[in-house]
Structure formats: structure tokens, C-alpha cells
């Protein structure tokens, strides 16, 4: 299997383009050996994840949401730069991981050029459980929990040095399997922004 870590150049582009192209890419997390996953069987979309000697857990991205700029009323950047959202204003290809509802971590990857606040939220993925069975990890909080990601990654570069990165493994999702619609749970942003079709996902057919 050919593996290529996505570079900052991939993320230094239009946020919606990056969001759509992240479908079919892989979140990869290096964990202690005792937490290494079991071998992975093939599943629906032709993916075959395997246990690696380097103790990596991989998850194929199947749903994302884009948050773009100061004018986006659904974005954390809407009120300007703060200690919490500072990574969104930073370099592309860095993580923005934040805590919500007093219990969940959510994973975002920063896009566009430094100084422009934009990021893509990872909402759902395909992975394997401790028994080696393929599973859907539904919801951004479950994605972070499965990968054992927390706030210590926020502001760090997505890369092997930090133990958490994104790879292209050669999987191309056909256009007919990709849908887009409104972002989830952001009615507070107002009708216009709540209805922006900035959620991208792979249909399960």
C-alpha cells in the first residue's frame, strides 16, 4: 500500500476544496505498543487497514465540515482571535483541538494561509475495533476518543514528530458517492450560515 503524508501545501488552499478532498484520506495516530490495533479486514469501500509494527491506528475520513473566515458566524473565529482559537489563525496543516460541553475533544485541521482563520472538523470515519472488526466511528467526539487525541495536540503540526498526521493511501472516492449539506448543530449561527452546504460526506451504498 502506497502511503504519502499530506504536507502543509495540501492545506494551504480553499477550505471547501480541502474539506472535500479529505474524504478518503486517513488520520493516523501513533500509540504505545500496548494500544496497537488488531489486523483489519477489508470493508465496503475497498480499504484494507493493517496492524503496523510502529503501533499506528488509522481511520479513513468519511465526513467533514468546513469553517472559513471571520465572517463565518458558525466559526469559533467569528469574534476574533482568542487563546482557545489561536491555532485557527496559525499555519496550515496544524491541529486545532478544542474541548466542548465540558466532556468532549473535537479534531480540526487548519487550512488557508497563516492569519486567515479556517479549519476543517473531522466528523466521522472508518476504523477497526479491538477485535479487528471494521466499524463506523460516528461523531467528532467519538473520532477524538478512538484516536486518543486531546488538547495537547492543539497548535501542533500534523506530522510524524507529533505522532498524529493525515495520509493519502491512494483511495479515490467517486463523485457519485460524495454528498454535501448543511453543517450540524449550528442553528445559533443564523439561517444563512446554518444552511451553508459545507458538510461533506461519503454515502454508504
Textual characterization of the structure:
The chain is built from four helices and ten strands; from the N terminus they run βααββββββαββαβ. The radius of gyration is 16 Å and the shape is globular. Strands 1, 2, 3, 4, 5, 6, 7, 8, 9 and 10 form a ten-stranded antiparallel beta sheet that branches. About 9% of the residues have low confidence. The protein has 205 residues and is mainly beta. The longest helix is centred in the N-terminal third of the chain and has 8 residues. It has a single domain, classed as Roll (3-methyladenine DNA Glycosylase, Chain A). It starts with a strand and ends with a strand.
Percent range for helical residues?
10-25%
CATH topology: 3-methyladenine DNA Glycosylase, Chain A
Beta content comes to 25-35%
Label the CATH architecture: Roll
CATH level-1 class: Alpha Beta
Shape type? globular
Gyration radius, in Å: 16 Å
Secondary-structure element order, N to C: EHHEEEEEEHEEHE
Number of helices: 4
- The CATH superfamily name is Methylpurine-DNA glycosylase (MPG)
Total beta-strand segments: 10
pLDDT averaged residue by residue:
90
What does the largest sheet look like?
Answer: 10 strands, antiparallel
Catalogue the unreliable spans.
Answer: 35-53
| Class computed from helices, strands and strand pairing | mainly beta
Determine the N-to-C terminus distance. 24 Å
Brief write-up:
By secondary structure, the protein is mainly beta. The chain has helices at 8-11, 15-22, 140-147, 191-194; strands at 4-5, 26-30, 56-68, 95-100, 104-110, 118-128, 134-138, 164-168, 178-181, 199-202.
